Amino acid sequence: MGSQLHVFFFPFMAHGHMIPTLDMAKQFASRGVKTTIITTPFNAPIFTKSIQTTKNLGTQISIRVIEFPAVEVGLPEGCENVDQLHSEDMHANFFKAVTMLQEPLEHVLEEGRPDCLVADIFFPWATDVASKFNIPRLIFHGSGFFGLCAPEHLRLYKPHKNVSSDSEPFIVPNLPHEVKLTRMQLGDFDKEDIETDFTRFLDKARESEMKSFGVVVNSFYELEPAYADHYSRVLGRKAWHIGPLSLCNRQVEDKAQRGKETSIDKRECLKWLDSKTPNSIVYLCFGTVANFAAPQLYEIAMGIEASGQQFIWVVRGAKNEDNNENWLPEGFEERMKGKGLIIRGWAPQVLILDHDAVGGFVTHCGWNSTLEGVSAGVPMVTWPLFAEQFFNEKLVTEILRIGVGVGAQQWKIVASDGVKRDAIEKAVKEIMAGEEAEERRRRARTLKEMAWKAVEEGGSSYTDLNALIKELSAHRS
Ligand code: UDP
């Protein structure tokens, strides 16, 4: 056994999990821990460039590739990431393939003999695998404390059973704040009692969490203290808060290299932003999983134009089946020249959010985006779509009070046309200008300062990561 602690990280194959896991590995590596990230061939390039930069800094981080059985489960070759799935069948097959990764993971552990395995919640069997090798397994969910506590209370108390319609609000009981939702805002697996492969999978994930060494959370204590405490004291989980993880990316290069290759040159993007006055740009981006149908994209274009605000709008999968872009209103880009920038594909999100010119963020409330918005001190328009995003919206708009909801009502992965242009126009105007907007902005700035303090030496996240590393070292000996 070497003297240096060696930790393996095994992220789920979705950008919202891979990106923060890479940042997490960098944080561990910066404290002298040897780190290895396990991933699949087609996901490997997402890590390599960024790792190279980090390696140059003299830290220890490497990747280990295992095969992903895409073809075996009926997926096209190379389909190894959630952002490539566009039907329920594909999702089901993807999870089948994920289950088959248990054996290759065992091989890798056998070979590498690490001291700890940090594995995603979506690998329920990883706790047993780790115990075979007599090492602790840590869980990474990708959500914040609020997004961990609130869905758990939904599961425990089933308040949605006591309402007579899908649109009647109910309160999620026994949380530190009053949190109201409707059945429309829940996924089928949350609101129906029917057992499916996916609900069984989630049950296993929960079991594996209870048996694990603990949970690492990408959040900081000061952001959601009541929920960090609730998670450990009431829900009984052992957890370490070590975020915001994205703040380990200090250089332009690091910020621009997160995730996929950007569809816009970073210099061009910065030049465009540099030409704008502070807080004058709205940034719109909806993560890496949600899809927007043409009518909804059209409503966004109309809404943003009507708001009169300047913007950067990230559109993934911008072309329709006919390979054209008829979702854009006629003459839109001509009219918006100099005023608005559409990025088709992948944007350097953190680089953009951190720029002074950006004064508002229209987000789907994925936890990474939410926390990146917080870390940049930018008020948000919340437009949740699925997963725990409707909960995150409540945190942003009602608890932290740094956002305005666009009025999304329905849980969905494909946004069809549910949110109309007027609602978009109104919400965007509301976060960008006016007295309340200024107050929101002030609160957002305070949170940004707290976020930075948390990761500085002596801060809450800095200290918790040290405590975790110490505990892992002690466990080893
Ligand atoms: N992201 C990015 N550029 C894009 C789209 C997304 O850098 O064009 C990053 C974003 O900064 C965040 C992650 O991808 O770190 C998305 O994670 P999130 O939890 O917000 O949403 P998800 O994709 O999981 O729905």
Instruction: State the helix count.
Output: 19
CATH class of the largest domain: Alpha Beta
Record field, number of beta strands: 17
Categorize the overall geometry: globular
Contiguous runs where pLDDT drops below 50 for at least 5 residues: none
Q: Any idea of the CATH topology of the largest domain?
A: Rossmann fold
Summed over residues and divided by their number, the pLDDT gives a mean of 94
Instruction: Name the CATH superfamily assignment of the largest domain.
Output: Glycogen Phosphorylase B
| Helical content (DSSP H or I, runs of 4+) | 40-55%
Descriptive account of the structure:
The chain has 477 residues and is an alpha/beta fold. The protein has two domains: 6-149 and 156-163 and 172-247 and 454-476, Glycogen Phosphorylase B (Rossmann fold, 3-Layer(aba) Sandwich); 261-452, Glycogen Phosphorylase B (Rossmann fold, 3-Layer(aba) Sandwich), CATH 3.40.50. It has 19 helices and 17 strands. It has helices spanning 15-30, 44-56, 88-99, 102-112, 126-132, 145-157, 188-191, 197-211, 225-233, 252-256, 266-274, 294-307, 332-335, 349-353, 367-375, 389-399, 421-432, 435-455, 460-476; strands at residues 6-10, 34-39, 61-65, 116-120, 137-140, 170-171, 180-181, 214-217, 239-241, 281-285, 291-292, 310-315, 340-344, 358-363, 380-382, 403-405, 414-415. The strands form four sheets. Strands 3-2-1-4-5-8-9 form a seven-stranded parallel beta sheet, with helices on both faces. The protein has a six-stranded parallel beta sheet with strand order 13-12-10-14-15-16, with helices on both faces. Helix 15 links the parallel strand 14 and strand 15. Helix 6 (145-157) crosses helix 16 (389-399). The longest helix has 21 residues, at 435-455. The chain starts with 5 loop residues before the first strand and ends with a helix. The mean pLDDT is 94. It binds uridine-5'-diphosphate. Uridine-5'-diphosphate binds next to helix 1, helix 14 and helix 15.
